[in-house]
Amino acid sequence: MLGQWLWFAAFAVMLVIFIAGHMQAKGKHNEIISQADPSNKLTSCLPFALHLTGKFQRTLDTHPIFVSLRQAIFQLYGPQAFYVRYRLFVGEVMLIAYIGTMTALLLPAITDGSPVNFAGALMLVLILPLVKSKEMINKSVQKQQDIQMELPELLSKLSLLVQAGETVQKALSICVQRKGEHLSHPLYIELNRMLKDVQNGYSFAQALEQFSKRCAVQEAAMFTTTILMNQKRGGSSFVLAMEDLGRQLWDKRKSVARKRGEEASTKLIFPMMLMFLVVLAVVGGPALMMMG
């Protein structure tokens, strides 16, 4: 009984810290929280998490262990929204870990007070942030591969339109417009944003450079550099440069497609093993019963 009260006391202390910290931080991080997903149920509790992570934010911004995560968020949201999104993600992970730890303390308090229950729940708490980080990195890789897969096709259309007499900017605008309502591909989302930047007063070169930074993919940087270097020349030299880049991008697309195929075949191994066990049970079960 005493053990249960100790667990409950630890839970109560963490709850008091959470409430006091939330009240203290309320209203201090509105600029960051305004960019969070309003449908997320954890958004209302983010002030406490942002206040908590703010105490060691410099370490989170520079520690090598978070490099992959920072790169993934930069890849997904671009340089302008990167830092805010990074702080929101770290705050959400911290909030999940804090609430999970409180739950882990409450579990032995309402059961038999066994440390085993706390240890089991705490293991799950440690796994959840890793799962969310891995999910973010996977989204980044998915976006990168989508851009690598689509760029060769865009380049082919662009070359044909330029040969037909269109300017590079007009050709890019036509490629985006033809997507119509299906403008959900990350490459065309960034291209559409680039064209809006041009309409808002940016030069075409500045908008292209911003497009390259938002994509954060080597192939997009090559695409931007080739256009900027050859658009003023025009004519056959521009088309030849596009064709040469196109061959490189098509080779990259083949390697990405091959990699995706290997990943798909790897994911099928576990379901195939389950199917094998089911078939083995269906076929071998009656035989074992007859032998018995």
List the uncertain runs: none
The level of helicity is over 70%
Mean pLDDT: 82
Oligomer status: single chain
Given the helix and strand composition, which structural class is it?
Answer: mainly alpha
Counting DSSP E segments of at least 2 residues, the number of strands comes to 0
Number of domains: 2
User: How would you sum up the global shape?
Assistant: flat
Distance between the termini: 51 Å
Order of helices and strands: HHHHHHHHHHHH
Computed over alpha carbons, the radius of gyration is 27 Å
Q: Mind summarizing the main beta sheet?
A: none
Number of helices: 12
Provide the β-strand percentage band: under 5%
Transmembrane segments: 6-25, 88-110, 116-133, 268-289
Protein name: Type II secretion system F family protein
Pfam families: T2SSF
InterPro entries: T2SS_GspF_dom, T2SS_GspF_sf
